[in-house]
Design goal:
The structure is a homodimer. Chain A is of the alpha+beta class. Chain A is built from three helices and eleven strands. In chain A, strand 2 and strand 3 form a beta hairpin.
Chain lengths: 178, 178
């Protein structure tokens, strides 16, 4: 079922979204198909907890027209030359004002394989300490620390995919230890 | 922390991706911001199992340049006038050749709140029976039935967000019953 990319065309280049219209040829029958999709630099998300509480952020999300979405701290991999781990450390300080001594990559996966190449690096960040205050470019973010004892109810409330994935991975991890 | 949309502009209209550049005004300080995002019709995904095995599909995914991605059966909500449940029933027959007697909406959530309004309806589909053979437009899909006993290992393998979410919801459901 293999394929190769035989042509690539950028049909729209914007600030976040770059739309490609690429041509692929399938190995089995030589058939060609044109596929449109959105290029994305990728994202990093952090499950940051101190053994008592997990740290989330609430912010307005204009694309989905929601006044407030409760999410894991996260950020786009859009800083030149910065690794996912480095982006994670920077974003954690900017969004929740913490640094973490221990970082574990729990999973990498794709956000929506049918239409974008956005890939997500999901880290567990523990050993939290208050970070030096970093200037955050977005003052509309509010931090919410939720007790781990309320994790099941929290998962019920969540409507953001990466936050669902991360909190369910955390639940599995805590169950394995418990 | 509220906002209102005060202007909307379509800057690219393609086959899958429609890129918007909308202007929002924030209630608290009256500040205005322009946000670019991708409109998507939404998707439905099905956790279809018969008590012994869960039914997945394998297919090439050109956007992420993966020769084969293992996924829940799913589809876009792009048929005029069709509800998410109706789309789910149609896609389940097309992709795995099954109908389901029992449908339960487990969750609706957003795929990637920072850049697209794609929303996903996640259904549990049980009471499976072989469906009348429906013509599927995509012959590159292969069905894989995985024993529920192997669910933990399956979750480890998965790299697609909706499939991760669905299978972790299934695991929680099965643990609660077990």
């Amino acid at each position: 079922m293999g394929f190769e990319r035989i042509a690539s065309e950028v049909v729209y280049e914007g600030k976040i979204a770059t739309v490609h219209r690429d041509t692929f040829r399938y190995d089995d029958d030589g058939e060609e198909a044109v596929r449109e999709f959105v290029r994305h630099p990728g994202s990093v998300a952090m499950i940051a907890h101190d053994g008592e509480r997990v740290y989330l952020v609430r912010q307005p999300r204009e694309p989905v027209n929601e006044q407030e979405v409760l999410e894991l701290p996260a950020g786009k991999l859009d800083a030149e030359g910065e690794s996912p781990l480095e982006t994670g450390k920077r974003e954690l300080a900017e969004e929740i004002g913490k640094s973490a001594a221990d970082w574990e990559l729990l999973k990498t996966y794709y956000a929506s394989v049918g239409f974008t190449d956005e890939r997500i690096w999901m880290y567990l960040a523990t050993g939290l300490e208050d970070a030096e205050a970093e200037a955050d470019e977005n003052e509309r973010i509010e931090v919410e620390a939720v007790p781990l004892a309320d994790l099941d109810a929290l998962i019920e409330r969540v409507v953001d995919a990466k936050t669902l994935v991360g909190l369910m991975l955390l639940r599995t991890r805590l169950q394995a230890k418990g």
